[in-house]
Amino acid sequence: MPITDEKKWYANYVEYHEKDAWVKRILNRLNLNSVGFFKVVNDDDKILDTGCGNGNTLEFIHENGKKILFGLDIEPYENPNDDIKLNVGSMLNMPYENNSFDVVYIHNAMHHLFNFEEYDLYVKEVRRVLKPKGYFFIIEPANNLFRKLLNIFVNLPLIKNIRMFKIYRESYEEERVEVELFYSLNLSSLLEKLDFKIEVNKYFIKTINIRSRKI
Questions:
Q1: What is the mean pLDDT of residues 94-118?
Q2: Which DSSP state fits 187?
Q3: CB of 38 within 8 A of CB of 99?
Q4: What is the DSSP string of 78-124?
Q5: What three-state secondary structure class fits 210?
Q6: Which is it for the CA torsion 144, 150, 151, 156, positive or negative?
Q7: pTM for this model (two decimals)
Q8: pLDDT value at position 15?
Q9: DSSP string, 126-180
């Protein structure tokens, strides 16, 4: 992606996710509840959010009682609070020891990887840093009916210039190639091949939500 396009995409991303943060908070709760996150994750579990951005999902998890929180992103961000430690690094070569975390979480970041080799390498890294029987949660774009209808809806003449839908549409167009490659990935097969047991696998609104466990 050219630098100018990358800057435009990032500006859209920030505007969509920060100015409409209330929407993201609602979706965070719904998505995490859909995979039973707060039912199976203990308050003292060590949690890693890969591709965490500014850590707003970790802040939400912290508000719900979780205290040992780490985030990893390729870009530097300030720690949101003393219980959340954000690190700079690649999801494909994580700066953590083997068997370090009880939980690894990814939300809307896996589809930004560039090819099937990187998908494979990422899941291998997750397995490496997870403790035995640790949980791996995935929330990523789904190629389902709701998503297809949403993409039609945001282009309707009376809708397309509403700020929230305009930003969604422009962000989707910027990352269309990445998303469509991700759609072609058989995520369940990849997880099972790398010795994860899938416990929850469902479409939820416009995402595919998975809870799996390291065997």
A1: 97
A2: H
A3: no
A4: --SSTTEEEEE-BTTB-SS-TT-EEEEEEES-GGGS-SHHHHHHHHH
A5: strand
A6: positive
A7: 0.86
A8: 53
A9: HHHHEEEEEEEEEEEE--SHHHHHHHHHTTSTTTTTSHHHHHHHHHHHHTHHHHH
Question: Are the C-beta atoms of residues 178 and 112 closer than 8 Å to each other?
Answer: yes
Token pair recorded at residue 26: 């609602």
Contact (CB, 8 A) for 129 and 101: yes
Tell me the helices (H) and strands (E) count for the chain, helix number first.
Answer: 9, 7
Strand 207-214 and strand 130-141: pairing? antiparallel
For tokens 């990358």, the residue is 6
At a CB cut-off of 8 Å and minimum separation 6, what does 157 contact? none
Question: Tokens 């435009």 appear where?
Answer: 8
Q: Cα separation of 42 and 37, whole Å?
A: 9
pLDDT in tens, 147-181: 788 888 988 998 988 887 887 788 777 788 899 99
213 close to 37: Cβ distance less than 8 angstroms: no
Q: Give me the residues paired with residue 196 across strands.
A: 214
Cβ pair 100, 46 in contact under 8 A:
yes
- Neighbouring C-beta atoms of residue 79, cutoff 10 Å: 14
